[in-house]
Design a protein that fits this description.
The chain is an alpha+beta fold. It contains 3 helices and 11 strands, in the order βαββαββαββββββ. The strands form 3 sheets. The chain has a 5-stranded antiparallel sheet, covered by helices on one side. Strand 8 and strand 9 form a beta hairpin.
Length: about 190
């Protein structure tokens, strides 16, 4: 890894098909307002780490390697808006148990690297627009099915031209004997 501090976070990183479908959701939001998230930067954050010193980066990689997660499908069902911090986002109605376990397990392993567990309830979302004008919930006519097969460590490099995020490392999730991925997503 680099010899300098890096701004890092763990995330679910969509495959190209899911990324295109998420980008289309941006067209459902008010146009010409706010700061759009570049299509290549769309992701779902698992845990934000912030500025990380080089001596902690190896510990982070080991902690992630120790996570025992299961592959799952994430169903993005609606768009919503948070007035603070003025963000329009897409997310699921139901949080899959495998996602909750992944976040908890990752947080537990990162404690050994000096990162405290998040005290707020985890609310999975994909940020689509920052500094967004107020809007209400929009139910998607056709939900997006996102097959989640791995999780990633991402470096944030804001400033200049997007994309601002770069995948640094990737860890697979166990598909398990009862689950396989088809061209359409996860099947049992």
């Amino acid at each position: 890894m680099s010899s300098k501090h890096r701004r890092l976070f763990f995330a679910l990183w969509p495959d190209e098909k899911t990324r295109r479908e998420l980008a289309v959701l941006q067209t459902l939001l008010p146009q010409g307002q706010g700061r759009w998230v570049h299509g290549a930067d769309l992701h779902l954050t698992l845990q934000f780490l912030g500025q990380v010193a080089p001596d902690r980066q190896a510990c982070i990689s080991r902690a992630a390697a120790d996570v025992e997660g299961q592959a799952f499908e994430l169903c993005i069902t609606h768009l919503d808006f948070w007035s603070r911090p003025r963000v329009a986002w897409a997310g699921p109605d139901q949080v899959p148990e495998a996602l909750s376990r992944l976040v908890a397990d990752l947080g537990g392993h990162l404690e050994s690297c000096g990162f405290p567990r998040e005290s707020r309830t985890y609310r999975p979302h994909v940020t689509l627009l920052r500094k967004a004008p107020p809007s209400g919930v929009i139910a998607l006519e056709k939900p997006i099915t996102w097959p989640v097969e791995d999780f990633v460590l991402v470096e944030s490099r804001p400033g200049g031209e997007p994309p601002w995020y770069r995948v640094v490392e990737r860890w697979p999730l166990d598909a398990g004997p009862e689950m396989t991925f088809s061209g359409q997503g996860l099947t049992s």
